[in-house]
């Protein structure tokens, strides 16, 4: 087992909307998630979910075993990295917080309210009386966590799969079909206290594939 740390930086190319599920005190029907200082954030649960989805797609494409269902307890590289209902995940995923400097109060202009309409998918038209207002973090915001992911993994090959998955995640939050949440993700990987070069991780991923994900 090796100790690992992933530092993440997500630079939004379009506004990001990660909904908090309520709208108290605002004009929006759906507000964004914020921390105690009011800073917009991407929750750790979404970091884990998006990364796992990307890792499963990569593993499947490369011919590595993936779980057939959420409750599948077959020993696969995905289960070893992300855990399962019966096996605790070996990694902790932190929330990515918007970089707003050292201000104690966050300016309201860091978010905006965007109008949208609900669509009837069967008819392909807008629903009557369904004008909605959605809060988003502004385009160009930088979400970071250092560390964002920390824990232990079996070897460098497992680390490399997680690294590759993070590099291909290019959309965060909701309403992606409306153009929200497009972003560039930057990753720095540290294993046993040493920052890993991309070429080393790419080779480790190739070796993992040659070994069948074992």
From TrEMBL:
Q: Which InterPro entries match?
A: CRISPR_Csm3_endoribonuclease, RAMP_III_fam
Q: Which residues form the CRISPR type III-associated protein domain?
A: 14-182
Q: Name one Pfam family in it.
A: RAMPs
Residues that span the membrane, as ranges: none
| GO biological process entries | defense response to virus
The answer, when asked if Amino-acid biosynthesis is one of the entry's keywords, is no
Question: Which keywords accompany this UniProt record?
Answer: Antiviral defense
Protein's name according to its UniProt entry = CRISPR type III-associated protein domain-containing protein
Q: Which organism is it from?
A: Roseiflexus castenholzii (strain DSM 13941 / HLO8)
């Amino acid at each position: 087992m090796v100790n690992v740390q992933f530092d993440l930086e997500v630079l939004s190319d379009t506004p990001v909307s990660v909904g908090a599920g309520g709208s108290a005190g605002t004009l929006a029907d759906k507000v964004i998630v914020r921390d105690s200082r009011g800073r917009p954030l991407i929750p750790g649960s979404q970091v884990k979910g998006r990364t796992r989805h990307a890792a499963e797609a990569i593993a499947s494409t490369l011919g590595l075993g993936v779980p057939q269902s959420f409750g599948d307890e077959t020993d696969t590289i995905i289960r070893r990295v992300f855990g399962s209902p019966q096996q605790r995940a070996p990694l902790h995923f932190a929330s990515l917080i918007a970089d707003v400097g050292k201000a104690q109060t966050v300016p309201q202009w860091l978010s905006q309210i965007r109008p949208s309409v609900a669509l009837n998918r069967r008819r392909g038209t807008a629903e009557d009386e369904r004008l909605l207002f959605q809060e988003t973090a502004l385009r160009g915001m930088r979400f970071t966590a250092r560390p964002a992911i920390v824990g232990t993994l079996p070897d460098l090959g497992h680390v490399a799969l997680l690294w590759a998955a993070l590099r291909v995640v290019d959309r965060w939050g909701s309403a992606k079909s409306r153009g929200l949440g497009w972003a560039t993700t930057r990753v720095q990987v540290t294993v046993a206290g040493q920052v890993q070069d991309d070429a080393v991780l790419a080779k480790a991923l190739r070796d993992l594939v040659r070994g069948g994900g074992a």
